[in-house]
Write a sequence for this structure.
């Protein structure tokens, strides 16, 4: 009996180790990129890194080369259930430039919106890596994160997003032995929306109960989602931008099921362990309509630096997060975040008081406080988060929540509805993918260090 049990257990382990496999048809070679670690005196050392594309963008196929996933549907023979699907399917190496429109040059990375090769690729989602098999973790309490960005080619409906999420450093390999592809192949994604469009979650496929999207030929929604804390350092095009923390009850990645995932794919947006709305600071939404955009105070026609500072209550890296501050640097000038002009909501920093008051004045559900608020976001930042660099369009709400009036049924006179100058008819993906096919975003000059260490304060505006 003991021998039979041992053999069964070994077979079980064998099945686990061959699940969510790495493909063998194309080598996975990560494009290199550098970033800088600065000290309190502003002296910065160059760090050699690399980037990897999210597993959701990859070709997924059987050992015989048959597609496991085509368009927005799974192959029912290869993927009769989540476990078998993960065992039968491999994630293939990526051709970054020719297929996904991703190129690096020293400290910069360019993400093209539309790339035509064997098919049509739309946008991308990338992660910064410390080495070939591990994501780079950033612990940012009492620190600042800065980068340069070119959004000049991103019009209404597009979102060049640079943000942090609480992914496993190894992509989930240690926690989920059924994942043998790991961070090298971009596995383990999660965010505060608990996305259900991921093909693999926690070492298994998401094929069971998969419903193809009615308006997106490439995606759908499965029974499961992947939740974790999310710090949106930057969501922007050349018309609007937002800085938004999204805490969760548990910072690290966890799998949810069906409507308990909340978000746009569920019947109750607020059902999950995470805050899907966050506490955002969008200058336009906070009343200043002449601060950010082409030819304005922060001129989106040219490159500028974005600085995000994570202030703690005691000024140490072990303190409690008490404020998130934003600065811009352009043409040698340091530009402070615009000040709110919304009656009843004051200041230009994200604090607990700001968030509580904003939710009340805007009439928004306060899921931010419910899931830990600023202190909860601080726990995730202390634990360490992975950097995500992306470019996308929005099949759910046309990106109106970022750059237009949203909800479209609400009066534009209601505080919080006007978020940007774009038309409420803008941002339709089928239109954007045609008219803005040559759009791109460039992120560069990433620096991390103590507060006020990553930029030169030549003058203040």
């Amino acid at each position: 009996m003991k021998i039979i049990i041992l053999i069964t257990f070994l077979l079980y382990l064998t099945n686990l180790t061959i699940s969510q496999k790495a493909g063998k048809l194309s080598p996975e070679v990560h494009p290199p990129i550098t970033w800088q670690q600065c000290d309190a005196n502003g002296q910065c050392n160059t760090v050699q890194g690399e980037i990897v594309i999210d597993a959701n963008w990859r070709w997924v196929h059987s050992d015989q080369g048959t597609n496991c996933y085509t368009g927005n549907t799974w192959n029912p023979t290869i993927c009769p259930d989540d476990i078998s699907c993960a065992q039968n399917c491999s994630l293939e190496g990526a051709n970054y430039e020719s297929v996904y429109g991703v190129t690096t040059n020293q400290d910069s990375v360019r993400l093209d919106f539309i790339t035509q090769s064997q098919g049509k690729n739309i946008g991308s989602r990338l992660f910064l890596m410390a080495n070939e098999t591990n994501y780079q973790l950033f612990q940012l309490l009492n620190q600042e994160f800065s980068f340069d960005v070119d959004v000049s080619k991103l019009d209404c409906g597009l979102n060049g997003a640079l943000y942090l999420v609480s992914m496993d450093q190894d992509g989930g390999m240690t926690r989920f032995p059924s994942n043998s592809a790991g961070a090298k192949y971009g596995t383990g994604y999660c965010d505060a929306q608990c996305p259900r469009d991921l093909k693999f979650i926690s070492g298994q496929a998401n094929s069971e109960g998969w419903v193809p999207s009615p308006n997106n030929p490439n995606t759908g929604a499965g029974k499961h989602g992947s939740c974790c804390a999310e710090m949106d350092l930057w969501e922007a095009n050349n018309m609007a931008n937002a800085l938004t923390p999204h805490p969760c009850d548990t910072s690290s990645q966890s799998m949810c099921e069906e409507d308990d995932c909340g978000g746009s794919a569920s019947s109750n947006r607020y059902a999950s362990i995470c805050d899907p709305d966050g506490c955002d600071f969008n200058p336009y939404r906070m009343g200043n309509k002449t601060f950010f955009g082409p030819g304005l105070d922060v001129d989106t026609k040219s490159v500028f630096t974005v600085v995000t500072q994570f202030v703690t209550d005691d000024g140490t890296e072990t303190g409690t997060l008490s404020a998130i501050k934003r600065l811009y640097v352009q043409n040698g000038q340091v530009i402070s975040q615009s000040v709110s002009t919304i009656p009843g909501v004051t200041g230009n920093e994200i604090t607990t008081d700001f968030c509580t008051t904003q939710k009340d004045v805007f009439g928004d559900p306060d899921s931010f406080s419910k899931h830990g608020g600023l202190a909860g976001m601080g726990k995730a930042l202390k634990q360490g988060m992975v950097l995500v660099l992306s470019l996308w369009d929005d099949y759910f709400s046309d990106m109106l929540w970022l750059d237009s009036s949203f909800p479209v049924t609400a009066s534009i006179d209601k505080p919080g509805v006007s978020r940007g100058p774009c038309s409420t008819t803008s941002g339709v993906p089928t239109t954007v993918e045609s008219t803005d096919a040559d759009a791109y975003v460039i992120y560069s000059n990433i620096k991390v260090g103590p507060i006020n260490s990553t930029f030169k304060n030549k003058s203040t505006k």
Remarks:
- Confidence is low (pLDDT under 50) at residues 1-18.
- The radius of gyration is 22 Å.
